Amino acid sequence: MQGIYGGGMSLLAFYSRNSQEVLGLVGQHLYLVAISTGAAIVVGVPLGILLTRRPTWRGPVLGVANVFQTVPSLALFGFLIPLPFIGGIGATTAIVALVLYALLPIVRNTYEGVAGVDPAVREAGRGMGMTDWQLLTQVEFPLGFGVILAGVRVATVVSIGTATIAAAIGAGGLGVYIFRGVAVVDDTLILAGALPAALMALAADGLLGVAERRFAWRGK
Amino acid sequence: MTKPLEVAGLGYDLPGRGKGERRKTRPLVRDVSFTVAAGETLVLLGRSGSGKTTTLKLINRLLEPTSGEVRLAGERAADLPVTRLRRRIGYVIQDVGLFPHFTVERNVGLVPQLEGWPPARIAARGRELLALVGLDPDTFMKRYPHELSGGQRQRVGVARALAADPPLLLLDEPFGALDPITRVELQREFAALKGRLGKGMVFVTHDVREGLLLGTHIGLMLQGSLAFLGTPDEFRRSDHPECRAFMAAA
Predict the structure, then answer these.
(1) How far off is chain B from A157, nearest CA to CA, in Å?
(2) How does DSSP assign B10-54, residue by residue?
(3) What's the pTM value of the predicted model, to 2 decimals?
(4) Measuring CA to CA, how many Å separate A135 from each of A112, A114, B51?
(5) Could you tell me the CA-to-CA distances from B249 to A26, A63, A125, B45, B237 in Å, in that order?
(6) Is B178 left (phi over 0), alpha (psi -120 to 50) or beta?
């Protein structure tokens, strides 16, 4: 009891003593997550849409994205280090790995959101003379947007957690405290990294969840 | 005067799976010919799988015919860009297919919007059409499809199909998903409405009573072919076994 109480107190004390460093690491963490999720959206959403137009590509593409998901994150970071251009120690490597993780939920949900539009709605749109582009931009994408956002939400929450491991390859972020805490067996230090990361994940989950429900046309 | 629709020798073979010799095709529609003049309604009657809906989709090229020719107001449908062709043909389907994220107003104004009409003209046309299908424009313009009953949705579906004043309307079991009372109500109103519109219509149904009520002509489809084509009176008197079977069900 006393330990937890004392830990809480020393956590606050730790933050007040190291506020500059904490803010810096939070900033780094947000940067890793924002850049990687943003890149995954830029790549993943068009890819998911492409799969709805080329159904035979769906199996192979989702399969490859799936494989990246199954590789343990620490191992993936390790594999990337020796690669030229994208590899090495630092944020670039971490961002590449985070993008690979974020791709699957975004590609899969984009595919399902767009392909899952009521066939009657699609047939009516085509039958009334919409071009494929008009059907996509005015009907399929807006109707699938809630499902696509759900994929972005999963990708973001996973990224926030996985980005803590990026500290292992020198990318910074809140994982710095966690690894340091594990190394010196200091719970307060571990908590100093884990708590803001968890709060960040909860906030992202909540905010994107609200946005997702706002765009849920399905079932109406 | 050219007719809204002329169909000659229309056929459609379902492409088979497999390659080379094993790639066999299955004919879904064979040698279907008919014409529809302005003010006429051709009812395509037939059992499930007889090729009625396929024939309809060959007309607006949701399926590409493998043989034969479709002419829309004298123009070969195959020569028109497919989107332009479809914007000149009203299309109503059983599941309506209103866009759930569009208001009634935007749903009805869809084709005019695609055609680039000015907004004021689209809005005026929308009000006019809603009144035409028996919906009060002030009450319904701003509603979303999920706020409508099944019968109201299909009224909007008909209004949407009429929006750009197409010479031809294709209707695929438009009242098939409605409850019996609403269905009869809409059938009666539609019978009155189509007389005023003076458009050519092709109306697909498997309900022989609906067909006899609404059709100026009946085309009976059997295994992809037109087994009978004539007026409702000729249909009633026909001794074709499939006609007799349908009359027995009426």
Answers:
(1) 28
(2) EEEEEPPSSSGGG---EEEEEEEEEEE-TT-EEEEEE-TTSSHHH
(3) 0.87
(4) 16, 10, 27
(5) 75, 53, 35, 13, 15
(6) beta
Question: What percentage of chain B exceeds 70 in pLDDT?
Answer: 96
CA separation for the pair A69, A97 (Å, rounded):
10
How many Å apart are CA B32 and CA B38, to the nearest integer?
20
| Distance from C-alpha of A22 to C-alpha of A193, rounded to nearest angstrom | 9
Above pLDDT 90, what percent of chain B? 89
Per DSSP, helices labelled H in chain A are 2-17, 19-53, 58-70, 73-80, 91-115, 119-127, 132-135, 141-162, 175-184, 187-214
CB contact under 8 A, A123 and B87: no
Q: Do B83 and A130 touch (CB under 8 A)?
A: yes
H-helix or E-strand containing B71?
strand B67-72
Contacts of A133 in chain B (CB under 8 A): none
Nearest residue in chain A measured CA to CA from B60: A127
Q: Residue B8, SS3? A: strand
pLDDT on residue A95? 92
The pLDDT score that the predictor gives to residue B85 is: 95
* Cβ contacts of A118 on chain B, cutoff 8 Å: 95, 97, 100
pLDDT at A4: 44
Which residues of chain A have a pLDDT value below 50? 1-6, 219-220
Show the low-confidence residues of chain B (pLDDT under 70): 1, 18-23
Residue B43 has, within 13 A of its CA and on its CB side, a CA count of 23
Interface A-B: count of C-beta contacts within 8 A? 66
Q: pLDDT tens across B55-81, in order?
A: 999 999 999 999 999 999 999 999 999
Residue B96, chain A, CB below 8 Å: the answer is yes
State whether residue A58 sits within 8 Å of chain B by CB.
Answer: no
How close, in Å, is residue B218 to chain A by CA atoms?
Answer: 24
ipTM, 2 decimals? 0.88
| pLDDT value, residue A1 | 37
Beta-bridge partner residues of B41 = B201
Residue A166, CA distances (Å) to A97, B74, B235 in order:
9, 68, 78
Interface of B with A in 145-164 (CB under 8 A): 145-146, 157, 160-161
Measured CA to CA, the distance from residue B69 to residue B34 in angstroms comes to 11
CB atoms within 10 A of CB A10: 17
Q: What token pair was written down for A80?
A: 């990337």
Say if residues B234 and B247 touch (Cβ distance below 8 Å). Answer: no
- Tokens 């996973």 found at: A158
